[in-house]
């Protein structure tokens, strides 16, 4: 089987029950789901100049994440850890998608969904990445009482927002164990 097959060839091979490489299936899927007014172009390796808008966004996100890591290491040097880079990138992507643009005064998530937030008050609850936060003991969250001299909160590090929960749920890194988990409520 050749490396490059036409969409019609791949479809006929699939109908015959021939095992087709995944890269050819992706091309067929793209060709079948692309409207007729669009074309499918492939760029060569290292041809970054072919998608200027995407490359600029990647550069911006990378530099923001790098600045967040530097900011956190300046203000809390004991918790400096380069392995937290993916959390910084995820937080930057969250900010990139939720902060309104100057030209449209709408955020990319609003433009993508076609709806707009009635007010931008949700932005005032954003946390600084890498900052110390206090998380309440789960017993207090469940309205149970703790012994008098027991700590009611523990110190953690804010590492962004959970993708699987509400935007009020933060990803908090436990500074003693290094474990990261979604926690609520957290205060700085």
SSE map:
Elements: H1 7-16, H2 22-33, H3 52-75, H4 85-98, H5 108-113, E1 132-136, H6 138-141, E2 153-161, E3 170-174, E4 180-183, E5 186-187
Antiparallel strand pairs: 1-2, 1-5, 2-3, 3-4
Record the strand order, biggest sheet. 4-3-2-1-5
Structural class: alpha+beta
Q: Which percent band covers the strand fraction? A: 5-15%
Rounded mean pLDDT is 77
Note the total helix count.
6
Q: What's the count of strands? A: 5
Overall structural domain count: 2
Contiguous uncertain segments of 5+ residues:
none
Radius of gyration: 23 Å
Helix content: 25-40%
Order of helices and strands: HHHHHEHEEEE
Largest sheet: 5 strands, antiparallel
What is the straight-line distance between the termini? 60 Å
Q: What multimeric state do the chains show?
A: single chain
Shape descriptor reads: elongated
Task: Put the structure in a nutshell.
This protein has about 190 residues and is of the alpha+beta class. The protein has six helices and five strands.
How would you explain this protein's 3D organization?
- With 188 residues, the protein is of the alpha+beta class.
- The chain folds into two domains: 1-42, no CATH class; 52-187, no CATH class.
- It contains six helices and five strands, in the order αααααβαββββ.
- It has helices spanning 7-16, 22-33, 52-75, 85-98, 108-113, 138-141, and strands at residues 132-136, 153-161, 170-174, 180-183, 186-187.
- A five-stranded antiparallel sheet has the order 4-3-2-1-5.
- Strand 3 (170-174) and strand 4 (180-183) form a beta hairpin.
- It is elongated and about 75 Å long.
- The termini are far apart.
């Amino acid at each position: 089987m050749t490396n490059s097959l036409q969409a019609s060839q791949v479809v006929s091979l699939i109908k015959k029950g021939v095992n087709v490489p995944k890269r050819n299936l992706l091309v067929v899927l793209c060709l079948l789901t692309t409207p007729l007014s669009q074309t499918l172009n492939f760029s060569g390796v290292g041809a970054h100049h072919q998608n200027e808008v995407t490359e600029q966004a990647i550069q911006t996100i990378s530099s923001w994440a790098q600045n967040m890591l530097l900011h956190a290491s300046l203000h809390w040097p004991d918790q400096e850890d380069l392995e937290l880079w993916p959390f910084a990138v995820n937080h930057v992507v969250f900010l990139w998608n939720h902060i309104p643009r100057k030209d449209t005064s709408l955020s990319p998530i609003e433009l993508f969904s076609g709806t707009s937030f009635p007010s931008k008050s949700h932005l005032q609850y954003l946390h600084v990445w890498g900052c110390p936060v206090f998380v309440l003991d789960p017993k207090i969250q469940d309205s149970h009482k703790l012994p008098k001299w027991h700590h009611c909160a523990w110190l953690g590090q804010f590492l962004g927002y959970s993708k699987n929960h509400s935007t009020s749920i933060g990803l908090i890194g436990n500074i003693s164990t290094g474990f990261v988990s979604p926690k609520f409520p957290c205060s700085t």
